[in-house]
Design brief:
about 190 residues
């Protein structure tokens, strides 16, 4: 049996925290590329709408909806990346610099606040009344098609649970680094 206070177990826990942070970083890179791609799709769709409307006098019906759906993906993936980067809005930014036991307590309070928001969103994305998957947010989207695009709505609505699941991974990685004393000090910003 290995004690949690032994150097070997602390090293293993620290290594697990760094591994979780690497997973979070890799998922964040994928999310950032997805957000960039979604912005490009949005710009292309809106640009084609302008060209087709004013130069060709024949605007396609799908461009506005495609731009809206791409904007949702860009926003949700961008929000998860902002959370990972610590660029999300906070009430007390100076608290991020607190380390030690007080920093751990503040990190736990922040994590609790994030969980209070994220867990119900993910729950209702999956489950509807009577724990029915078919009546959850994703289940209801599965049977509907987009108005102008012949694509199931789940391809668009899946942005919400994907982004919130990424936020949970980023939160777990940040907490693991914080609790093992490996969280880098926040970058100082000018007032």
């Amino acid at each position: 049996r290995i004690s949690l206070s032994s150097p070997l177990s602390r090293a293993m826990i620290g290594k697990a925290a760094r591994g979780l942070d690497r997973v979070s970083a890799a998922l964040n890179t994928i999310a950032l590329w997805g957000a960039v791609l979604a912005v490009l799709v949005m710009v292309y769709a809106a640009g084609w709408q302008v060209i087709a409307r004013y130069l060709l006098s024949d605007p396609p019906i799908w461009t506005e909806e495609m731009a809206r759906r791409a904007m949702v993906w860009a926003g949700m993936l961008g929000a998860s990346a902002a959370f990972r980067a610590g660029a999300d809005p906070v009430l007390f930014p100076a608290m991020a610099a607190v380390r030690g036991a007080a920093g751990g307590a503040l990190a736990a309070i922040r994590a609790l606040g994030v969980l209070i928001f994220v867990v119900p969103v993910l729950w209702y994305c999956l489950f509807g009344p009577n724990m029915s998957l078919s009546r959850g947010f994703l289940g209801r989207s599965l049977g509907r098609s987009a108005e102008m695009l012949d694509i199931p709505m789940i391809w668009f609505t899946a942005a919400v649970p994907v982004a919130f699941a990424l936020i949970l991974v980023h939160l777990a990685a940040r907490l693991a680094l914080q609790m093992t004393g490996q969280l880098p000090a926040p970058a100082r910003t000018a007032p």
